[in-house]
Amino acid sequence: MTVYIIRRVLQLIPVLLGVSILVFSLMHLTPGNPAQLMAGESAPPDTIEQIEESLGLNDPLPVQYWDYISGVVQGDLGTSMRYNTPVADEVWPKFVVTLELSIYSTILSIFMGLLAGIISAVRQYSISDITIMIVALFGLSMPNFWLGLMLIQWFAVNLGWFPPTGWEGPGSIVLPVISLGTAGAAIIARMTRSSMLDVISQDYIRTARAKGVKRRVIIYKHALKNALIPVVTVAGLQFGALLAGAVLTESVFAINGMGRLLVDSIIQRDFPVVQACILIIAVVFVLVNLVVDISYKFLNKRIDLND
Q1: Is 307's pLDDT higher than 60?
Q2: In degrees, to the nearest 5, what angle opens at C-alpha 174 toward C-alphas 150 and 107?
Q3: CB of 136 closer than 8 Å to CB of 215
Q4: Most buried residue, 21, 220, 256, 285, by CB count within 10 Å?
Q5: How far apart are CA 100 and CA 96, in angstroms?
Q6: Is 66 within a domain?
Q7: Using H for helix, E for strand and C for coil, what is the string for 234-260?
Q8: Could you report how far apart the first and last alpha carbons of the chain are, in Å?
Q9: How many separate helices (H) and strands (E) can be counted in the chain?
Q10: Residue 90, CA distances (Å) to 31, 67, 96, 276 in order
Q11: Average pLDDT, the chain
Q12: 303 alpha-carbon distance from chain centroid
């Protein structure tokens, strides 16, 4: 296990290096001049040239990338071109907000998805099964921004149960989490049902039933544990998708998270902030997948992670 973890951590280096090169190249190859945006449309050419010189934008791209990656290795993410402040001061507070939103939404997705999927599998072709799958399809089809607007209208404006916007206090997190986590719950529910039906049909489950083992023990101890591997995989991918795609939910609920910061920075051509945001998302995504892979060993002792 230790050797596997060390090997996977070392594999982070080329992945993150590739991500940094790709993002750096795309940001510098897209049209637009950040110095022009900072100086204003009516700024004279001399002022723009001075800004370009101070930001190092006149240096060759390899030199600019080397300066950037050298700073990242030392823990310096650079200085924001837009705010003229350290990138870390801009990114970290907003990253914490987005991370909390993604974690809460993932927990909701797993809880609702597992519960619905198990009920649907053990009552296959029943009214409960059909109803759950229809609701899951509906949840999967709804855009999260539309669901967010509907939740605001129903529970914030009409009923006044929750605040319509913001990320302060327990009440304000309910609607954004439901909005962002519903689609993930639908995916996990369908995956749980499919995986559970496959496991329930196995010979060892029939043997347990023949021996008189209680149904609850069969479902939750024997069947569910072996059915969780594909579900855990989907949950890990969902977390990464939520972390990277929370911008719509943050915009609808006026949450000052990293998604909104990333979009604003792309529009303003704030290279260091964009690169830092995407690099952080990439690191978290790879680490989550590492945790998912390690969890396979605990779910099924026969899996050899070194293969």
Answers
A1: no
A2: 115
A3: no
A4: 285
A5: 6
A6: yes
A7: HHHHHHHHHHHCCHHHHHHCCCCCHHH
A8: 12
A9: 14, 0
A10: 25, 20, 11, 10
A11: 81
A12: 27
Quick one: tokens of 261? 């910061």
Which among 29, 34, 32 has a CA at the least distance from the CA of 51? Answer: 34
122-174 pLDDT, tens digit each: 888 889 888 888 888 888 888 888 888 888 888 888 888 888 888 887 888 88
- What's the confidence (pLDDT) of residue 17? 84
Angle at 50 between CA 44 and CA 55, to 5 degrees: 130
Q: Is-contact 87 79, C-beta < 8 A?
A: yes
pLDDT score recorded for residue 305:
57
If asked whether residues 59 and 98 sit together in one domain, one would say: no
Give the separation between CA 35 and CA 61, rounded to whole angstroms. 16
Written as one string, the DSSP assignment of 167-215 is --SHHHHHHHHHHHHHHHHHHHHHHHHHHHHHHHTSHHHHHHHHTT--H
Would you state the structure tokens that stand for residue 8, as one six-digit string? 């996977």
Q: How many whole angstroms separate alpha carbon 233 and alpha carbon 231?
A: 5
Q: Scanning the structure block, which residue is given the tokens 């907003």?
A: 94
Indicate which CATH number applies to the domain containing 282: 1.10.3720.10
DSSP code at position 111: H
Question: Is 290 part of a structural domain of the chain?
Answer: yes
Statement to judge: residues 154 and 38 lie in one domain: no
Are residues 256 and 167 in contact, defined by beta-carbon separation less than 8 angstroms?
A: yes
Pair 154, 277 in one domain: yes
Which tens digits make up the pLDDT trace of 65-92?
Answer: 888 788 888 877 777 877 778 888 888 8
Q: Token pair for residue 123?
A: 């009552």
pTM above 0.85, yes or no: no
Q: Which residue has the tokens 């070392």?
A: 10
Q: How many domains does the chain have?
A: 2
Give the residue, 301 or 270, on which the prediction is more confident. Answer: 270
Helix (H, G, I), strand (E, B) or coil at 79: strand
